[in-house]
Design a protein that fits this description.
This is Glycosyltransferase 2-like domain-containing protein. The protein is an alpha/beta fold and 107 residues long. It contains 3 helices and 4 strands; from the N terminus they run βαβαβαβ.
C-alpha cells in the first residue's frame, strides 16, 4: 500500500516499461514501492507504466498496484515508442523520471 496514493503533485515518476514477463514486473513494482515507502517517505512519487502487448493479464497487474498513469497497448510498438510515451506523456507532471525495466529488482 502506498501512503499518499494517488499523488497530486509528484516530484518523481517511477517509469516502468514491459512486454510480457509480468511476474518480473510485479516483483519490480513491489520492490520499488517497498523502497519508496520505507526509505524515501518524504518524496511524493507516482508510478507510470507502458505495456507492449502482454495480454489480458496486464489488466490484473494494473488492478493489483496503485498506478497513477498507464498505457496498455495491444501491439508491441517497441522500446523507443514506450520510452517516449513514458517520458513525454505519462511522466510529464513530475520533475524527475526514474526509468525502470520489468526485470529490475532490488531489496
Amino acid at each position: 500500500e502506498r501512503a499518499g496514493f494517488p499523488v497530486a503533485y509528484p516530484i518523481l515518476c517511477a517509469a516502468f516499461m514491459s512486454c510480457g514477463r509480468l511476474g518480473l514486473l510485479r516483483r519490480g513494482m513491489s520492490a520499488l514501492t517497498r523502497h519508496m515507502e520505507s526509505h524515501e517517505p518524504t518524496i511524493p512519487y507516482e508510478i507510470a507504466w507502458v505495456d507492449n502487448n502482454s495480454g489480458a493479464e496486464a489488466l490484473d497487474v494494473y488492478r493489483e498496484f496503485q498506478i497513477e498513469r498507464v498505457s496498455l497497448y495491444r501491439a508491441n510498438y517497441g522500446a523507443t515508442h514506450g520510452m517516449n510515451s513514458l517520458l513525454f506523456g505519462l511522466c510529464s507532471r513530475s520533475r524527475y523520471a526514474l526509468t525502470l525495466e520489468e526485470d529490475w529488482e532490488w531489496d
